[in-house]
From TrEMBL, chain A:
InterPro entries (alphabetical): Metal_Hydrolase
Source taxonomy: Bacteria, Pseudomonadati, Bacteroidota, Chitinophagia, Chitinophagales
Protein's UniProt name: Amidohydrolase
Listed Gene3D superfamilies: Metal-dependent hydrolases
UniProt superkingdom: Bacteria
UniProtKB/TrEMBL annotation, chain B:
PANTHER family associated with the record: 2-AMINO-3-CARBOXYLMUCONATE-6-SEMIALDEHYDE DECARBOXYLASE, ISO-OROTATE DECARBOXYLASE (EUROFUNG)
Range of residues in the leader sequence: 1-27
Pfam families associated with the record: Amidohydro_2
Keywords: Lyase, Signal
Superkingdom: Bacteria
InterPro entries registered for this protein in UniProt: ACMSD, Amidohydro-rel, Metal_Hydrolase
Occurrences of domain Amidohydrolase-related (ranges): 55-272
Name of this protein: Amidohydrolase family protein
Record's keyword annotation contains Signal: yes
SUPFAM superfamilies, per database record: Metallo-dependent hydrolases (SSF51556)
Length: 268, 312
């Protein structure tokens, strides 16, 4: 069984996406043997009021009929925008959402913003994960209207060091770190803290190209299949798992990566 | 209290009230509601991976002790039969001593692994005489053509003309680095991409392809992170520009889009050492098995055959 912990529906304003609604995603999942996908609505990155996007996703899932159970919706929350606490409550209690995705760069706040800390503490208290990502699209192909964190410039793309301060601030929360595309290096003390934290990373990002080694250094329970679809192709994240050799990951570990770790982490 | 604090604290107070007052009118599917969920049939990805013969037409080796063995290991893992390797000239100014040293590394690798590695040479047309001599030296050593020519000189610079004419005479595929990023190589320079000023851009490829319609040009890595929609649209009318699909950015729909605009014969499978992305993006494309096989192997091999260098 495969559970994809990093998928989206919705639009990217600077490029047309394919397979970016639940119906198309179900077809993709069926074709490639994926039973369940964690999804959120990309539109929430661009709407000032993210709740509109969460409601869109809820309505789309409601209209999907029996297939809706194949999705685990996550809310997009901007903790610096008025009413987010109400939105979070509504997403969890009314919309049945099982986690939160945040976008500090797009929503223009710092990783240590007190509002974000408050949100993470609240999700912790609700036993919900909060998901960060390194980036949404490759900065080298960014539109002139997109954010300007650009690889190999004085304002580079994020690394783990940029995300880590929130983990340090609320070390007992549940974190998902997605599309891991740049360095995972931390200094020794932070690395030790990171290793103790409840973190699940997905396999969509290019830094996961040596998953066999990462399983040894980070542990077998900290990674799970993810696609970052429909922005990234559907199979590369899967290929990083399926091509592992027996000495890198036996059958048990592969099942953890395909679905076991996601099931445990998300409390499915 | 600043405005943000006011908004945040105000909202927090409201949420506090909400927590003690359950939301009403919920239309959410009740937790645990039984809904039909039939598991999809399993998909044997590695069987699909191994179904296709593959030549990776853009790969590199390094100065490290584990190279090229690490690159070969990725190839074995993903069923890549051959890799066209080079040690790209990522130094300035790129003197003859430097490019000879870089090519020596490649020659050493292809001599050691002749069944798996095909060699591409590098040069710098600023040093025209030495570059032409280097083409002969490397061809005599068994290399199949230029590897990824780099950013010392733009591909359409007149300094390149005698080099390109020689490569055309030899029926070699002319492979050059290029980018399509804001603020790089002349593209929208009000931004600053912090790259070498002579980096080639798509317009430079069009210029040289028009000058030499008999040349076969390989535009490097449409998956490198540049604007692949721009690249493919610009190259549509230039049948002697082929694109290699390599790069670390495995955007969904990139391959489909490239086939739509360039046709299924003008794409070469490649990784630029991002092996998983290289294979994954072609496999996930909405193409027929035959189209995938052409991209993975046949398109490039057919051009190699024209120069007597085919691999089967």
């Amino acid at each position: 069984m495969l559970i994809d912990i990093n998928a989206y529906v919705g639009h990217w304003p600077f490029m047309q996406l394919k397979y970016n609604n639940c119906t198309a995603l179900v077809e993709r999942m069926n074709k490639y043997g994926v039973e369940t996908s964690v999804i959120s609505n990309l539109n929430g990155i661009f709407y000032k009021n993210t709740q509109s996007a969460n409601r869109e996703l809820y309505e789309e899932l409601k209209a999907l009929g029996t297939q809706r159970k194949r999705f685990i919706p996550f809310a997009v929350i901007n903790p610096t925008y008025a009413g987010w606490q109400y939105d979070l409550e509504e997403c969890v209690k009314k919309f049945g959402m099982k986690g939160v995705r945040v976008y500090p760069k797009y929503h223009d706040y710092e990783i240590t913003d007190p509002a974000l800390i408050e949100l993470v503490k609240r999700t912790r208290d609700m036993n919900l994960p909060v998901a960060f990502n390194y980036k949404m699209v490759d900065s080298r192909q960014r539109s002139w209207m997109d954010i300007d964190y650009v690889a190999y410039t004085p304002k580079p793309e994020w690394t783990l060091k940029n995300i880590f301060p929130i983990i340090k601030a609320v070390p007992d929360a549940k974190y998902m770190i997605l599309n891991v595309t740049n360095s995972m290096q931390l200094d020794a003390a932070d690395a030790a803290l990171f290793k103790k934290a409840r973190v699940l990373m997905d396999t969509s990002g290019r830094t996961i190209n040596d998953l066999g080694s990462l399983l040894k250094t980070q542990g077998t329970e900290r990674f799970a299949f993810g696609t970052h679809a429909p922005i990234l192709d559907y199979l590369t994240g899967m290929l990083r798992i399926e091509s592992l050799r027996a000495e890198e990951a036996d059958a048990r570990v592969k099942e953890l990566l395909r679905s076991g770790n996601a099931t445990h982490f998300l409390g499915l | 209290m600043n405005r943000r604090n006011f908004v945040t604290r105000g909202a927090a107070g409201m949420a506090g009230m909400l927590l003690s007052s359950p939301l009403t009118g919920s239309a959410a599917p009740p937790p645990g509601e039984a809904a039909t969920r039939s598991a999809p049939p399993s998909f044997d990805l590695m069987k699909e991976v191994m179904k296709y013969r593959k030549i990776d037409v853009h790969a590199h080796i390094y100065w490290t002790d584990d190279s090229p063995e690490t690159q070969l290991d990725y190839g074995r893992r993903l069923g890549i039969e051959k890799q066209v390797i080079s040690r790209y000239l990522d130094v300035m100014p790129g003197t003859p001593e430097q490019f000879r040293k870089f090519n020596d590394l490649t020659i050493k690798a292809i001599k050691k692994y002749p069944g798996q590695l095909l060699g591409g040479f590098v040069l710098n047309p600023v040093y025209q005489k030495e570059s032409l001599e280097e083409i002969k030296r490397c061809t005599d050593a068994g290399m199949i053509g230029p590897g990824e020519l780099y950013y010392q000189v733009k591909i359409n610079d007149p300094k390149y003309f005698p080099i390109i004419e020689k490569l055309i005479d030899l029926k070699m595929i002319i492979h050059s680095h290029a980018e399509c990023q804001l603020g790089v190589g002349g593209y929208r320079m009000k931004y600053n991409g912090y790259k070498q000023p002579n980096t080639s851009i798509p317009e430079d490829f069009v210029d040289i392809a028009r000058r030499y319609p008999e040349g076969i040009f390989q535009y490097a890595h449409i998956g490198m992170g540049g604007d692949w929609e721009y690249e493919c649209k610009l190259f549509r009318e230039y049948p002697n520009i082929y694109v290699d699909t390599s790069g670390s950015n495995n955007a969904e729909n990139m391959i489909d889009f490239a086939v739509e605009h360039l046709g299924e014969d003008r794409l070469f499978f490649a990784s630029d050492n991002s092996y998983y992305q290289g294979v994954g993006r072609v496999l996930s494309a909405n193409l027929t098995d035959r189209q995938k096989q052409k991209i993975f192997f046949d398109n490039y091999n057919n051009l190699l055959k024209k120069g007597g260098r085919g691999v089967d």
